[in-house]
């Protein structure tokens, strides 16, 4: 069943329409940043080891297309893998990063546009369809907008161009935190840890997690600091206690 009734589907209490609106906002920030790149900026190092900013920009474009494949799968019921293979994915990113900056910029804008167009084609029942993410894990299609939002903001930070997690709008933070916490909330073993996050509106959220490494039993701090740590982008001093290295996310 297809259509445009995205607002009826929810993920973690947030409507799909609201999450897609957040994706549009984040994408506007992303394309605005990349629009300001000089040609030499594309070849400068990103915060990801071994990747230039061009690698990150190209990855964000190909990720959008990969998620279009999953949206198409959900809408049609015909399997469309996110990527043909990991080797193809990596080769596409390496090749794309070698292009002229303007071509990379136009590619990113076009891919982001394709994602939004395909997302608006799904109806309520389509969002409940099960597909497989790039790791082969079954997920509900309703998770795809949140997946894209997380990719955009996390790799915006990786571009190392004036945008950090402290730039994330308050309305996006819950979605990003829920996504970043997935590996630790789904663990069935490990060391228990309670994470308490302070949001910009003065409210707090807490989670009981399990992590691979032994550490202090409680960590607290701002949402931006928590996202930096949870995504493996650093261990901010503003978070309480010595923090284990969680490894990079995405």
Automatic annotation (TrEMBL):
GO terms for molecular function: isomerase activity; metal ion binding. Residues 23-159 form the Mycothiol-dependent maleylpyruvate isomerase metal-binding domain. Keywords: Isomerase, Pyruvate. InterPro entries: DinB/YfiT-like, Maleyloyr_isom, MDMPI_metal-binding, SCP2_sterol-bd_dom_sf. The keyword Isomerase applies. This is Maleylpyruvate isomerase.
């Amino acid at each position: 069943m297809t259509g445009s009734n995205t607002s009826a589907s929810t993920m973690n209490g947030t409507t799909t329409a609201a999450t897609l609106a957040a994706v549009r906002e984040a994408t506007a920030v992303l394309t605005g940043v990349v629009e300001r790149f000089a040609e030499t900026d594309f070849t400068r190092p990103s915060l990801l080891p071994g990747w230039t900013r061009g690698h990150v920009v190209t990855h964000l474009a190909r990720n959008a297309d990969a998620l279009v494949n999953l949206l198409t799968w959900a809408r049609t019921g015909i399997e469309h893998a996110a990527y043909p293979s990991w080797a193809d994915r990596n080769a596409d990113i390496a090749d794309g990063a070698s292009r002229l900056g303007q071509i990379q910029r136009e590619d990113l804008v076009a891919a982001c546009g394709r994602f939004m167009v395909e997302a608006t084609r799904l109806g309520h029942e389509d969002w409940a369809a099960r597909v497989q993410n790039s790791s082969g894990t079954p997920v509900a299609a309703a998770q795809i907008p949140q997946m894209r939002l997380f990719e955009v903001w996390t790799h915006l930070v990786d571009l190392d161009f004036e945008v950090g997690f402290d730039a994330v709008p308050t309305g996006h933070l819950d979605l990003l935190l829920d996504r970043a916490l997935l590996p630790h909330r789904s663990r069935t073993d490990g060391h228990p840890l309670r994470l308490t996050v302070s949001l910009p509106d003065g409210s707090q959220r807490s989670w009981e997690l399990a992590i691979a490494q032994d550490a202090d039993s409680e960590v607290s701090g701002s949402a931006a600091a928590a996202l930096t740590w949870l995504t493996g982008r650093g261990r901010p001093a503003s978070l309480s206690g010595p923090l284990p290295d969680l490894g990079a996310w995405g």
